[in-house]
């Protein structure tokens, strides 16, 4: 009928984290109690799909002091909103209609204008992320003609990158 706040205390017991909540003493025979608990658990990045809690009622009653242990599995759902931002430097490039690359040259400027594409991947939260894979498809040819010559690939911020096939094939 009435609602009361429980007094709960965390402690360690046999290398396990235990939260002990006092429900009331003495308790009348046949009493029914509903308990709603809100737990905050950190470090769930590697927990998998569920977190298991073991629940047990303990009593000072000498006839049946401990109930059976019940396991409750709670699904873990990670939430993080990723945002991809990108830009090209310069934003616009116009090539002359009769432009030709110099065959055999190893100078980048003899093969076209430099266009740098910059992408930033941001985690907008609320959770942390790891193991994110970003795949970019850059068209290098258009109707059989060279469109983009992929010269190099660089990253910042501790990211790993796999070089695409055909990166700088003429070693410019």
In brief:
The protein is mainly beta. 0% of the residues lie in helices and 30% in strands.
Explain how this protein is built.
The chain is mainly beta. The protein has two domains: 7-75, no CATH class; 78-171, no CATH class. 0% of the residues lie in helices and 30% in strands. The protein has no helices and eight strands. A two-stranded antiparallel ribbon has the order 1-2. Strand 1 and strand 2 (16-22) form a beta hairpin. The protein is rod-shaped, with a radius of gyration of 31 Å. The mean pLDDT is 81.
Rounded mean pLDDT score: 81
Distance between the termini: 80 Å
How does the overall form come out from the CA principal axes? rod-shaped
* Series of secondary-structure elements, N-terminal to C-terminal: EEEEEEEE
| Total domain modules | 2
Runs with pLDDT <50, length 5+? Answer: none
Strand order of the largest sheet: 1-2
List the helices and strands and how they pair.
Layout: E1 7-13, E2 16-22, E3 50-55, E4 70-75, E5 80-89, E6 116-126, E7 141-142, E8 145-146
Antiparallel strand pairs: 1-2, 3-4, 5-6, 7-8
List keywords for this structure.
172 residues; mainly beta; two-stranded antiparallel ribbon; 8 strands; rod-shaped
């Amino acid at each position: 009928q009435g609602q009361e706040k429980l007094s709960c205390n965390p402690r360690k017991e046999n290398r396990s984290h235990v939260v002990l909540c006092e429900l009331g003493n003495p308790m009348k025979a046949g009493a029914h109690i509903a308990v709603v608990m809100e737990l905050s658990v950190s470090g769930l990045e590697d927990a998998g799909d569920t977190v298991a809690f073991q629940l047990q009622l303990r009593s000072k009653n000498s006839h049946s002091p401990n109930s059976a242990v019940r396991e409750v599995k709670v699904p873990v759902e990670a939430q993080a909103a990723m945002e991809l931002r990108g830009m090209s430097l310069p934003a616009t490039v116009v090539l002359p209609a009769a432009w030709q690359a110099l065959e055999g040259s190893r100078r980048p400027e003899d093969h076209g204008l430099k266009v740098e594409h910059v992408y930033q991947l941001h985690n907008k939260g609320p959770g942390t992320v790891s193991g994110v894979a970003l795949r970019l498809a850059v068209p290098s040819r258009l109707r059989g003609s060279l469109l983009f010559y992929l010269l190099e690939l660089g990253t910042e911020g501790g990211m790993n990158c796999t070089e695409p096939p055909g990166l700088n094939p003429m070693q410019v």
